[in-house]
Amino acid sequence: MGIYLDFNSSSPIDERVLTAMIDVYRNVAGNADSRTHNFGVSARQVVENARGEVASLLNVNKDEVFFTSGATESNNIVLQGLKEYSEKTGKKHIITTSIEHKAIIETCKAMEKLGFEVSYVNPKLDGRVAYEDVVSLVREDTLIVSIMHVNNETGIIQPVKEIGEFLADKEVYFHIDATQSFGKLVDELKQIKFDMLSMSAHKIGGPQGIGALILKKKRYKLPPVKGIMYGGQQEHGIRPGTIPVALVVGLGYACSLVANEYRENADKCQKIKEMLLAELDNSGISYRINGNQECCVPNTLNVCFDGVSSEALMLSTKQYCGISNGSACNSKSYEPSFVLSAMGIPVDQIENSVRISWGAEADFEEVRASFKELITVAKGLVF
Ligand code: PMP
Known about the structure:
Blueprint: E1 3-4, H1 15-27, H2 38-58, E2 65-68, H3 71-80, H4 83-89, E3 93-97, H5 102-113, E4 117-121, H6 131-135, E5 142-148, H7 160-167, E6 173-177, H8 186-191, E7 196-200, E8 211-215, H9 245-283, E9 287-289, E10 300-305, H10 310-316, E11 321-322, E12 328-329, E13 334-335, H11 338-342, H12 347-351, E14 353-357, H13 364-381
Parallel strand pairs: 1-11, 3-4, 3-5, 5-6, 6-7
Antiparallel strand pairs: 2-8, 7-8, 9-10, 10-14, 12-13
Helix pairs in contact: 1-9, 2-9, 3-5, 9-13
This protein binds 4'-deoxy-4'-aminopyridoxal-5'-phosphate.
4'-deoxy-4'-aminopyridoxal-5'-phosphate binds near residues 9, 70 and 180.
């Protein structure tokens, strides 16, 4: 199968996290909401401990952390959960970008059908939306601004810090989808003035199927987000359903590990990126990098190999590495990446672009060897 280089899609679970989770599956039998016996009390204790680990990584309070099944659900709750508040206040304008994850874009599209007006800000060619393009759209009836911190396809960091500063004293909620930055841009996230934040465990060595929504209190009050499912009062009704104790522990433990390791992880990832760029330069192949590397995270490279179809490249390199492109592909149609399209990259270049993403645990020499194979294959595919 070769080497896994698709960490932005999902990262492998950290062995230490897995061990902690297995221990919970074996030894913690209760439902964290059972009040009638000590099994429930123990389950509640481990859940609350994990909540503290998540809160501490973001420098928020424990009672601002709500467990969900992941960032898709958190994003849905943020937007759909504001419907009632929007009815009360008449605020029906949403500002977002055209390069968000589908969990935001498709929720926005559904809300447009309900009478909401959504402004989608396009990024520039460098992969960043301009601060002015976002804040100039804010108006009296703006309900929420929802912007991703780091784009999953390009790794480009968006100006959420500046946007947060601008919105801090306005009656407009600010949500960031921090799925690709959580546990990585740890210091930066602590400084951003957001009201709501979405994230997911499986991007930081935690298990799939668990994440959190952070709702930050303003003047001691939570944002007026309501749960979007009926069925229980777990997580204060924001996310009803039995709390998956072992998954929550996996998320919490992954947080406490990256809290100690994020700087070292970033350094390792940056070294891999520099090596990949050097290999590209030395190979003589014609390529271009999508997105400005000065505002890019260290674990992502979106690269266009001139004249090389990304689909052909991915197929022909399957034995060396697992990489991806952002296309929406099904048997009937091929749609080039909407993120690269929104940046204004020509379609032929988009069709030749692949995303390579890695983590600190990726073996430097193995990555180098498989990347060299990839370049050799790419050279043979130049059309
Ligand atoms: N937002 C972003 C920016 C993402 O990259 C992803 C995962 N690819 C999600 C949301 C969805 O996360 P989850 O898999 O936890 O639903």
